[in-house]
Amino acid sequence: QVQLVESGGGLVQAGGSLRLSCAASSRTFSTFIMGWFRQAPGKERAFVAAIPRSGSDTYYADSVKGRFTISRDNAANTVYLQMNTLKPEDTAVYYCAAGLRVYEPSYWGQGTQVTVSS
């Protein structure tokens, strides 16, 4: 079993930045593909970004390319999401995820709220 705990969410003005962190409990953290998803009010949960075990490649939704950066520290069992130039449409609950497939994670965190005011 893998426990994921997100932190770093909050309220920010449009154009601002936030950095989300996700700490994993598993000793096998380095074997998982780690990702971030988000769910806006009234919408389905959607893929945001993912990073494989080695960190050599990264994947992003078109809506966040060039603004968000995903990274991981396998020694610290932590994955990050640096979010820059935030827009009101980025407002959502952001979930950390882990698994063996980029778009089909097996484990989820509880989520952290990100609110971007205009």
Explain the overall architecture.
Helix content is 0%, strand content 49%. The protein is built from no helices and 11 strands. It has strands spanning 4-7, 10-13, 18-24, 33-39, 46-51, 59-60, 68-73, 78-83, 92-99, 107-108, 112-117. Strands 2, 4, 5, 6, 9, 10 and 11 form a 7-stranded mixed sheet that branches. The model has no long low-confidence stretch (mean pLDDT 95).
Tell me what portion of residues adopts beta-strand conformation.
Answer: over 45%
The average pLDDT value, as a whole number, equals 95
Q: How far apart are the first and last residues' alpha carbons, in Å?
A: 40 Å
Order of helices and strands: EEEEEEEEEEE
Counted beta strands:
11
Could you describe the largest sheet, including whether it forms a barrel? 7 strands, mixed
The shape is globular
What would you call the structural class?
Answer: mainly beta
Rg calc: 13 Å
Point out poorly predicted stretches: none
Number of helices: 0
Helix content: under 10%
